[in-house]
Amino acid sequence: MENQEHLMSLATDWAPVFKLMGDRTRLRLLLAMHYFGPGEATVSELADIVGVTLPTASAALQVLAEGGVVEPVKEGRVTRYKLVDATTHALLHHVGGIHRH
């Protein structure tokens, strides 16, 4: 019974992450951010990398930020995003996400 409770707890904990990663654009953005490392990337850099329009990347990054997976960092008129959720970072490794270095 204890193992079942643990498994159900895992499902509860992971469901929001899987929901965020269930969108192809969001997953591609996360994989790009993960690959390029702990640094921050601008919306336009990420849009170019994953091959989407700036508004599409911006909307997807906003959803990820609201979910606590990425964090926007304002630098004047430029907003950079960085991956901040350790659970998501670990999951990206499990799905085959690699780092550049």
From TrEMBL:
Classification of source organism: Bacteria, Bacillati, Actinomycetota, Actinomycetes, Mycobacteriales
CDD domains, A to Z: HTH_ARSR (cd00090)
Entry keyword set: DNA-binding, Transcription, Transcription regulation
Domain HTH arsR-type per the UniProt entry, residue ranges: 7-101
Molecular function per GO: DNA binding; DNA-binding transcription factor activity
Superkingdom in the source lineage: Bacteria
Name of the protein described by the UniProt record: Transcriptional regulator
Source species: Corynebacterium deserti GIMN1.010
Gene3D superfamilies assigned to the protein according to its UniProt record, in alphabetical order: Winged helix-like DNA-binding domain superfamily/Winged helix DNA-binding domain (1.10.10.10)
Magnesium is among the record's keywords: no
